[in-house]
Design a protein that fits this description.
homodimer; alpha/beta; eight-stranded parallel barrel; eight-stranded mixed β-sheet; 24% strand; isomerase activity (chains A, B); dioxygenase activity (chains A, B)
Chain lengths: 604, 604
């Protein structure tokens, strides 16, 4: 199907918006009136610009408060409409959106609404224009799709049809059965379809609509369900995104447009009108790669954690550190950013790296140029929205190239402790740029096939953070996406690698005995644990001694502690018992405050 | 009355919060449990710190999900409570907040709730502690203040009382009569009063409460009305602020605490329990002062606008430019900030400058050190939250010193055109730091006696701006406070001085004839004006030629145009007709886009 995007969904000048929509591969745009008014380009120049960019102008919008008016007011509305139809002629736009009347002048009179919409359609027809009438969810008298359709049907005019907007429909209906009536509308009378998702917020419809819409798959609406009804009705027009979102208004238009297109690809995959390569979900974390200007501090931490440096890359200053199934690459690259040590890449273990890469590319993930030399093993990689490099790879697979083929054991390298089954990567926590949190969640779901978990607010002493995990169902891959309270916090919070162990107490003791420093946790925290839970003799004292945090839910328990921070990176030791699926969120405020307090204590 | 603030209302570590509360002059604090858990200080150390800072610990909070539980669950709750009462003993806190139960385990059984709260109060009494029971607005069965009070009354325990929270009460009641029942509660059974305001949002109560509370006078609740009821009931405890606000969480704790204290001073003034010096509202704008590293570009604009340099300060490089009642000081000071030319100070004409200054000081406005030399006329000044210096002064008043006494006519200075009645300052537009918008509105209302108008969202091409005017009722002083979409935009938007004229067309023509450059406005804007309004022959063409924007409402018309930008400052020419009270908000997106497009065109 053709795809389109409303200019209001993107940031910047009209020219910037059109360029971004075209580059992202959209077929057309809806021109939002304010964007035209604010543009120094004439309508003819806008038309030519769109043509040059390969974009059709699928809709001009909106026309407001037109129908069911006292005759005098309607005459004024018709006068306005004549001006706009002439403008549309110059633009080359043939469909205009008319929103249902919200003004106090509007009369509760469907027959009058139909009659006046018919007269508007007469005028439109003279200009070769179609009128798409849409029910706003807060329309004064007409605010449901079926009511708008009844009025359109009553008017019975060839140049009058309806426009369906997923926000206005799904924000009002709880029961999927309520929207089945869409299928009864003749497809050729559905002149347009506008798509937006939204998080499920209990708030005033107008505010919800104006500030919190998002792209399909980023919110809580069942857009696939809606789209199936619209397709069964016979709709053949474009899928068009109309998203009012305070964050997108500030974001780079190019990125937003790609994010938008990806959302439509995924939606079309769901309803079967597009078939990108099927997802090949990762089955584990092959490695995490740290880039550092100085390998010594992070190597010291890894050594104290019981990791052994088992191999070195044949052509680059990259060491492989290993304990059990946890593999960490330490890349002494140039210090690209002043933060020093950072988590730069993740190797995702997949049963078919090439298929994973094809999927990612089809879903518009930026494919990274090979950084390997020609003789290296082929490694497919894409960039995540936060810039993390994601490698699709295989480890010890009988019929696939092994990414470790480029590594050789070197003199002096240790060997990994023999506890393969007991250590691994529990999860990775990645701080996201503020403007790209929704994009990141959709990316990890759509491109990697991970499942987003619930979004959680976490109180840092200096602002609220938002955190959302994306995981495989079996928990073999867990990535926690975190975002600060405001754009300034983009880099204020560290990334971390959580290591799974079956004996967090032993691991913490051994780490400390080897000279590692654990994040100190306030005694008040343990007094509270004593109030909340009962522990065996000495158990709580052990946790307190080591700075181990504790959580328990109906499924199981979670014990975890933290190393000090090196650059932007720290490590967490994690022991899960039972089917505990969380990340110790109740402990996060205490951990974050302790990290702020320990600023002096953080290392290089 | 004593004043208190919950630690959750301020940003930072517990130590930072306590210090900020003390410095702002609060008498006590509510300690929020998470702040204690995250603190490395022992309870005894926290107690000592508070004592050193002159703060009492008025409340420990919260205890949750205690009452109306199955016996086994209640036993666990009592066990937790025992731990917390021991902790409170170490802290020296004698009142604990218990929130009404929200858990699915809670039973709908008031008798059981009363009985269990009584048993909790027994335990509390043994520790010398009082239990203040509060209805959360989203409590499972008990969610109104009167229901909570009935349960407390039924328990009939001396150590059990109620806590009233303005958010939980006012978020649920529309009719002022609904809260009169507060007066029927015996004052000595109101153990605590928590105050928070909130903007009137139609949204889920929990989200509204957790993210959007603000200090009294910053939202839409009638807190004075509520407080009068509570005082009539006989309450003698502290006024305590409990404000969950995403922005305050990120803001400097010291500033927030002062803002908080100011809000309570104003609230107490409203109900008559405090009497700061009465407000002396300004009656005009005496001058606006620009600071610039190079006077030439801004002097050229002023000259082209028909201003004359009429005088020069006797001791400083400050010129007075004047046209009619519009007076602008150009101060060639050191370039303090890289932005260059900026609006640094405003002279507010007041009938009693000393009284205005006393009021400001009593309401915690930072008093500025005199920058004048000893022989200069005395000028009282305070700093607004955005750093603008506000001078309280008199111009040509028979019995007050004239701020112009320090200025002398100098050779070569021109004289002002003879159009005193026709030119003046219409309004000043000041960009506010992102974290201080609510503070700024309250400051201008409380300290200066200006009245806040409605808050307006304005779509800039790169993000939504929020704008709110504070004015005198007669419009003699109008200040428009504007804030960007996110902290990064703090300085992205310019300040401006809007000059009132009774002939904007003539003024614009004269400005252009004198070499001034007007902001070009797209033709599409005028095509839209033609669709929306009818104009006399040639009228619209004149506006289009000059870049004059037009708005009309039921009260009157507004015509305005803009100069190019010098540093961070530009000028607007404004002609109001009839009783139009706005600022041309419908035109703001077009103007902002034009200013972005004209970046190359902006000067010095």
């Amino acid at each position: 199907m053709r795809t389109s995007i409303a200019t209001v969904s993107l940031s910047g000048s009209l020219t910037e918006k059109l360029t971004a929509a075209s580059r992202a591969g959209f077929d057309g745009v809806e021109i939002f009136e304010n964007d035209l008014l604010a543009s120094p380009l004439t309508p003819e120049e806008i038309r030519a610009r769109c043509a040059d960019l390969g974009l059709t102008i699928d809709l001009y919008q909106p026309m407001r408060d037109v129908e069911a008016l006292p005759e005098e007011d309607f005459a004024r509305a018709l006068r306005r409409a004549r001006h706009k139809f002439e403008l549309m002629g110059r633009l080359g736009a043939d469909t205009v959106l008319v929103c249902s009347n919200v003004s106090p002048q509007a009369l509760d009179d469907d027959a009058l609404a139909a009659e006046q919409l018919g007269r508007l359609a007469d005028l439109a027809q003279d200009h070769g224009i179609r009128v798409a009438y849409e029910a706003l969810a807060w329309g004064r008298h007409i605010n449901t799709y079926d009511h708008a359709w009844r009025v359109v049907e009553a008017a019975g005019h060839p140049s009058l049809g309806t426009c369906l907007d997923s926000f206005h429909i799904l924000s009002r209906y709880g029961d999927p059965k309520d929207i089945e009536g869409i299928e009864d509308i003749p497809g050729d009378k559905i002149f347009f379809l506008q798509l937006a998702d939204a998080p499920l917020l209990g708030m005033d419809l107008l505010q919800w609509s104006r500030h919190y819409r998002c792209f399909p798959g980023q919110g809580g609406f069942d857009l696939a369900g809606l789209l199936r009804h619209v397709l069964r009705a016979g709709y053949t027009g474009p899928l068009s995104l109309e998203v009012f979102n305070d964050v997108f208004r500030q974001s780079d238009a190019g990125r937003t447009a790609v994010d938008a297109r990806r959302s439509l690809l995924v939606l079309q995959e769901q309803v079967g009108t597009a078939a990108p390569p099927a997802p090949t979900a990762p089955i584990g974390v092959a490695f995490a790669e740290l880039v550092t200007p100085d390998a010594a501090p992070v190597s010291a931490v890894l050594g104290a954690l019981g990791f052994a440096r088992t191999a070195r890359h044949r052509g680059k200053p990259v060491d492989l550190w290993q304990r059990g199934d946890a593999r960490i690459l330490v890349n002494t690259g140039p210090a690209e950013r002043r933060e020093g040590t950072r988590l730069a890449a993740v190797g995702l273990e997949t049963p078919d790296p090439a298929a994973s890469a094809h999927r990612a590319e089809a879903l518009l993930a930026p494919v990274l140029p090979r950084r390997r030399s020609p003789e290296d093993a082929p490694l497919e990689a894409v960039a995540a929205p936060d810039g993390t490099e994601l490698f699709f790879c295989a480890t010890g697979h009988p019929r696939l190239p092994d990414w470790r083929a480029d590594f050789g054991y070197v003199e002096g390298a240790g060997s990994a402790p023999d506890d393969d089954a007991r250590w691994g990567v529990d999860h990775l926590s990645l701080t996201q740029p503020w403007h790209q949190f929704d994009e990141a969640v959709l990316f990890h779901r759509a491109v990697l096939g991970l499942r987003p978990q619930e979004s959680v607010d976490v109180a840092d002493p200096y602002g609220l953070l938002r955190s959302r995990a994306v995981t495989t169902d079996d928990g073999a891959v867990r990535i926690v996406l975190t975002v600060g309270a405001a754009p300034v916090d983009d880099t204020a919070h560290a990334q971390h690698i959580a290591l799974a162990t079956d004996d967090v107490v032993g691991a913490a003791r051994a780490y400390r005995a080897a000279g590692g420093r654990l994040l100190p946790i306030p005694d008040n925290y343990y007094a509270d644990l004593a109030a909340r839970f009962e522990f065996a003799d000495g158990e709580l004292e052990t946790y307190q001694e080591l700075g181990i945090l504790y959580d328990r839910d109906a499924q199981g328990t979670f014990r975890h502690c933290y190393t000090h921070t090196v650059g932007r990176v720290f490590f967490e030791l994690v022991q899960r018992e039972g089917a505990y699926r969380g990340y110790g969120a109740p402990n996060a405020p205490v951990r974050l405050a302790a990290q702020h307090a320990a600023r002096g204590f953080t290392g290089g």
